Amino acid sequence: MTASPMLFIAVEFCDGSKIKYSFPTQAANDAARQMKLEDLLKGRHLVIQAEGRLVMHPMENIKTIELSTGGASLEGIRLPLHTIREATVLR
Question: What share of the chain is helix, strand, coil (3-state, %, to 5)?
């Protein structure tokens, strides 16, 4: 049995501060990932359990969220229709 890859979520707030969390895989299949993504997109808070604490970040205070997929394909996941796919970050 192989270990699950550690994923991350990086959050940049409207005031310019940033935080990054690492975590293990949260959903075992496409259907579960779909439900988690839909819940995140509808939610008013980003809720994270970390180091014995429950942290709730109001979405109104968040400028951007970057969420790793751990190399897992998003092919089976329905993203919003306006999603730009297979983009490359230019520096």
Answer: 20, 35, 50
Q: Could you please report the per-residue DSSP string of 65-82? A: EEE--TT---TTS---TT
| Residue 9 clears pLDDT 90, i.e. is over it | yes
Task: Tell me the average pLDDT of the chain.
Answer: 89
Closest CA to 21 of 50, 45, 54: 50
pTM of model > 0.90: no
- Residue pair 5/25 in contact by the 8 Å Cβ criterion: yes
Closest by CA position to 11, among listed 79, 57, 42: 57
Q: How far is CA 67 from CA 1, 30, 46, 50, 78, in A?
A: 25, 16, 12, 16, 16
Name the residue with tokens 């109001």: 58
pLDDT band at 5 (very low <50, low <70, confident <90, very high): confident
